[in-house]
Write a structure and sequence with these properties.
Blueprint: H1 4-23, E1 29-30, H2 31-41, H3 50-62, E2 66-71, E3 79-84, H4 86-110
Antiparallel strand pairs: 1-3, 2-3
Length: 115
């Protein structure tokens, strides 16, 4: 029998990866701003601790889905800006398709209707 917490953790990680990649689609962004955008775009429903986001960013970078570079601006501390790679864009497209199918199936199976 599988551990339900493992599936939940994998689902959360997959959703987090999708959210991060989507924030980087338009322009390079640093970790704190990624968290802010996710929170703003979800009307505060989705909130991430910046510290918990960095291991995922490092993993995405290692997998070549994103690339990062350090930027120093006058009067500010150094920040690492991340951008989507071509491989990351392809992954984002695939994840959007997959999640869309999942949401549709959930909607149909649960009888969820939108106003």
């Amino acid at each position: 029998m599988s551990n339900p917490d493992v599936a939940t953790t994998a689902q959360k990680r997959g959703a987090t990866e999708l959210l991060i990649l989507a924030q980087l689609e338009v322009e390079p962004t640093h970790g704190y701003e990624i968290c802010q955008r996710i929170s703003q775009r979800s009307s505060g429903v989705l909130a991430f601790n910046v510290a918990s986001l960095y291991p995922i960013l490092y993993d995405l970078e290692e997998r070549k889905l994103i690339t990062g570079r350090w930027v120093e601006k006058g009067g500010q501390r150094r920040r690492r800006y991340y951008r989507l790679t071509a491989q990351g864009q392809a992954m984002l497209t695939e994840q959007r398709r997959s999640w869309s199918q999942f949401f549709l199936a959930m909607q149909q199976a649960a009888g969820i209707e939108y106003a």
